[in-house]
Give the backbone structure.
Amino acid sequence: MANMNADRETLRELADEGNEAALDRLADLVDEADDVEELSELLDEGSMRAGLLLTRRAAASGDLRELQRIADAGYDEAGNELDRLLKQPADAPDRDPHT
């Protein structure tokens, strides 16, 4: 476990120096650790990979507000996903009829 933290620390240092690949890898590690708060912070720092990962999570859970927040933070695909969900018919096959 300490090795993963060291990796995250090293990746954070590289990302802070402008290394985009390190920022993307950091987002992947944070996502694997299920740390949504840190993933959101990475999006706020400009990580498009974090935006992608957060969008996948929000779309899977149908969280429209989170998709709007992600889009507002600069990840345009979240806006596209939000539009797709909003345009989905109420009786869509993947929608639970009891909700």
